[in-house]
Amino acid sequence: MDKKISVFISEEKIQARVKELGAQIAHDYQGKSLHLLCLLKGSFIFCADLCRHIDLPLEVSFLSLSSYGNETSSSGQVNFLSEIPKELEGKDVLIVEDIVDSGFTIAKLREKLQKFPLKSLRLCTLLFKPTQLKHPVSIEYVGFSIEDKFVVGYGLDLAQNYRQLPFVGLVEQ
Ligand code: IMP
Ligand code: MG
Questions:
Q1: What pLDDT is recorded for position 76?
Q2: Which atom of ligand 1 lies closest to the CA of 105?
Q3: Which is the catalytic residue, given 49, 101, 148, 157?
Q4: How far apart are CA 98 and CA 39, in angstroms?
Q5: I need a surface site. Which of 8, 50, 110, 112 has the fewest CB within 10 A?
Q6: Cβ of 98 less than 6 Å from ligand 1
Q7: Is 101 a catalytic residue?
């Protein structure tokens, strides 16, 4: 895919904010150890950067989900492409997400996680589209609240493309 992508949130802004989030998380969980649950594929870059700014004893696990297919609007369905990792049990778990749009993905995941005895559960998302939220979800850590625009880069894709961009960008029409 070869579309023109314009910078929406620069690499510098993202890196500065990720550093702040890491410091905030380390402060909030002081004296504890933390388990990051990275939602694939979209969060792989954010989680890789974030975890290096969290100065705590830390574990990471991965859960593969899909909701968008190849479209630019949510399919209204969440597919769990892998099992919830058993190693979460009894831990302070922080879900690491790329973007919360309708909130459907996170609502479904939280529902599933209710069956697991966790010490605590919080959510950290790089991006949040507040005007799009349709499912009540609590989000403890937000990188950037953005308008309702379809964005790519820094892990986020359009039909599996553009995840490797170091910035968050807009696809030019
Ligand atoms: P939700 O279930 O509607 O909250 O959608 C969340 C998921 O949709 C995210 O984890 C992303 O994978 C995807 N998504 C939502 N908005 C965008 C976007 O602007 N660009 C790329 N993916 C998006
Ligand atoms: Mg995602």
A1: 72
A2: 2
A3: 101
A4: 8
A5: 112
A6: yes
A7: yes
Q: What confidence tens digit (pLDDT) does each residue in 141-161 have?
A: 999 999 999 999 999 999 999
More confident residue, 5 or 75: 5
Task: Tell me the residue range of the domain where 147 lies.
Answer: 5-171
Sheet strands (E) in the chain: 5-9, 34-40, 58-66, 79-80, 92-100, 120-128, 141-145, 151-152, 168-171
pLDDT tops 60 at residue 70: no
Q: What is the pLDDT of residue 57?
A: 98
C-alpha 98 – ligand 2 centre gap (Å):
5
Is the whole model's pTM more than 0.90, yes or no? Answer: yes
Q: How many domains is the chain built from?
A: 1
Q: Is the CB of 66 under 6 A from ligand 1?
A: no
> What's the average model confidence in pLDDT over 117-133?
96
Q: What is the CATH number of the domain that holds 149?
A: 3.40.50.2020
38, β-bridge pairs: 62, 96
Measure 162 CA to ligand 2 centroid, in angstroms: 14
Give me ligand 2 centre to Cα 43, in Å: 6
